[in-house]
Amino acid sequence: MDDEAKSGPQSDMNTDAAPDAEAAAAPLPPSSSETAEREEAKVEEADEEGQVVERLVELVSEIAAISDFRNSYRRQFCNLSRRIRLLVPMLEEAKEAPAPLPVASEAALRRLRDALHAARELLRLGSSGSKIFLVLDREKIMKTFQDVTARLEQALAGISFDELNISDEVREQVELVHTQFKRAKERSDLSDDDLFNDLMSLYNSSSSASVDPDILRRLSEKLQLVTIFDLNHESLTLHEMASGGDPGAVVEKMSMLLKRIKDFVQTEDPEMGAQASTANISPKDNSARPVIPDDFRCPISLDLMNDPVIVATGQTYERGYIEMWLEAGHDTCPKTQQKLANKSLTPNYVLRSLITQWCEANGIEPPKRPAQLRDAPLPCSAAEHSNVLELLQKLSSQNLEDQRGAAGMLRQLAKRSAENRACIGDAGAIPILVSMLSTTDVSTQEHVVTALLNLSIYEENKARIISSGAVPGIVHVLKRGSMEARENSAATLFSLSIVDENKVTIGCSGAIPALVQLLSDGSQRGKKDAATALFNLCIYQGNKRKAVRAGLVPILLELLMEIESGMVDEALAILAILSGHPEGKTAIGAASAIPVLVGVIRNGSPRSKENAAAVMVHLCNGEGEQQQQHLAEAQEQGIMSLLEELAESGTDRGKRKAVQLLERMNWFLKQQSQAQAEAEAMAHAHEQAQAQAQAQPQILVQAQAHADMQAERSLRPTSSDISDR
Fold first, then answer.
1. Distance of CA 58 to the CA centre of its chain
2. Where are the ARM repeats (predicted)?
3. Which of 284, 478, 576, 597 could form a disulfide with 288 if both were Cys (CB 3.0 to 4.6 A apart)?
4. What whole-number distance in Å separates Cα of residue 90 and Cα of residue 111?
5. What secondary structure, in 3-state letters, does 535-547 show?
């Protein structure tokens, strides 16, 4: 479908997590504009002698303005800046030197200019660069320090004080600076070893590994990442590095390292955590503060998103931070570094609903609905309003051609702009369109339902459509309309279900069985629309039962086995939601889903693997007989090695689910081992009892024989008996 409502949330049912990065430090970021600097150098080569000195004065002034070296190299950066500033008196006196300067002095001043260029870029890095990066890449940073120091020392060594008419007092000062540069050139002054070792241990650890809080506290204090401003500035700086050409995987891993520090800081100071996430944490013990899922964090700020929006690459960000990024002149996606085809921002309503659901489950005040004032369309002109009224008259006529044409025109107008959508809604078109949903003319019905779809993009029109009683008519079209009408009906239901209370209304209207049917027999586009609507509707707990009873689970499993359908990700996303409901969990288990899910974990995409693992976690959670059977079946399918691989190289969410499953599997295997040992012990005891039982009759026979012999001996005649006779 070509209508606007279909873009957006469907592209981000479950945000992708970043791939693992190798544990290697990134190279030094390139200077702000190397091409511009080369052009600047060419111009300066053509400068006259006096202008070279003027340029040196400007460079020192620019360097003096660079400050706030709040990182592990603060002393080195401050020393470099201070020594350069001490050159100002010499340069001021050099302005008065007779022209033209001797060739040797001219060359020495140009070398000093080039050295100051390099020093300026290094100091800029120390002032505004990433604090984490500066520590991780300390060897290259210190090598750059030494190179800059050596160039400055060599440039000063070539300057002739006599030719520049430098006074004795200033000469002594410059000679002192030259001596300091010479001494610094020969000394390697590395940063704090403990800080480096702490940071590297955290950098190289897996995302699921526990970290000593003392390490996180030391890192926060030594890196001076203790306030929201510090943390957010560091995050933005890391993304600036990635946009400048540094390896995205390395920057991504540094961002995850920063996230750990930020989580620790916010746990230590709950008030700052509440301020950062714009959500009010209920008064609880610090240790009970829930950890924000990575999928709900803005990749730039690393905070819980309040107003998530999707950019052209499909990635989701907090609106305020991505707007700040774009306003700074960037035209790339901060996370993927892909060039943005456009700078439009689409609200991610699905993710926002999931965030709200998570907040409610964890006792956190959900994000407030973002204000629509800045997006409010301008009022339409009198001519446009008159045109809409004329179309509504035709739509209300008894002439079929007029109705069809007017519905088609309204559809197109509603597609073009927010202003048109507001104008049409204000003119009272929605009740008339709703009344025509039951028309028997196929084309008119298609136009009407698609016009409602396009109108529903405007927030106020959602309420108008619902209050006009449109849902039963839309469900009617979903059941009996043409394929195009059914597709657009499903998309309309999705658009309306963005408002949480509408999920209940739509769920009670009989829409879910009709959507399940479209998912089963619809076109490729129809299946996508049905899946998106079902996913959003099933966020509401009461709709999960309806979806399961409508037979959704077997259809989803069929889609999983039809790789060519292109519906694997959508099917797994819905299964992951349903598996959290008791009836959904039972239905998935009864449908023999374990082999299919293990197959996805073995061969699926990263997103598919993480959702398959999430479903498995729900199925195997508990100690009942059914869960034991699922675990045994998963073991037979060879899941252990797959989970170990997923825990090592999957997405962040995939890693978490794999670790949870591995814990369940290990517990199950231990239980099996204990049960087997007990069974073997019982079998051994049974064998011994049987052996004893078999031996008992023989003992009795022997005892009886012995008793008979004793009795027989007692009856034999004795010598006394013979004498008596």
1. 44
2. 428-470, 510-552
3. 284
4. 15
5. HHHCCCHHHHHHH
Cβ 250 vs Cβ 260: under 8 Å? no
Q: How many whole angstroms separate alpha carbon 626 and alpha carbon 478?
A: 37
Look up residue 502 and give its amino acid. N
In a 3-state reduction of DSSP, which class is residue 304?
A: strand
The confidence score (pLDDT) of residue 114 equals 92
Please give the single-letter amino acid code of residue 396.
Answer: S
CATH class belonging to 294-362: alpha beta
CB 119 within 8 A of CB 84: yes
Which residue has tokens 């000469």? 171
Q: Which helix (H) or strand (E) holds 346?
A: strand 346-347
Q: Which amino acid is at 172?
A: E
Nearest alpha carbon to residue 115 among 156, 76, 143: 156
- How far from each other are the two terminal CA atoms of the chain, in whole angstroms? 133
H, E, C per residue of 391-430: HHHHHCCCCHHHHHHHHHHHHHHHHHCHHHHHHHHHCCHH
Q: What pLDDT does 470 receive?
A: 94
- What is the C-alpha separation between 602 and 645, in angstroms, rounded? 9
Band (540; pLDDT cuts 50, 70, 90): confident
Answer positive or negative: Cα dihedral of 512, 515, 519, 520.
positive
136-140, 177-181, 191-195, 615-619: lowest mean pLDDT where? 191-195
Distance CA 675, CA 670 (A): 8
- Check pLDDT > 60 for residue 119: yes
Q: 119, 181 in Cβ contact below 8 A? A: no
Tell me the C-alpha distance between 664 and 630, whole Å: 11
Domain ranges of the chain: 51-186, 193-269, 294-362, 592-708
8-state DSSP, 310: E
DSSP classification of residue 564:
G
Q: From 53, 55, 33, select the one nearest 164 (Cα to Cα).
A: 53
Distance CA 267, CA 262 (A): 8
Joined tokens for residue 688? 């011994």
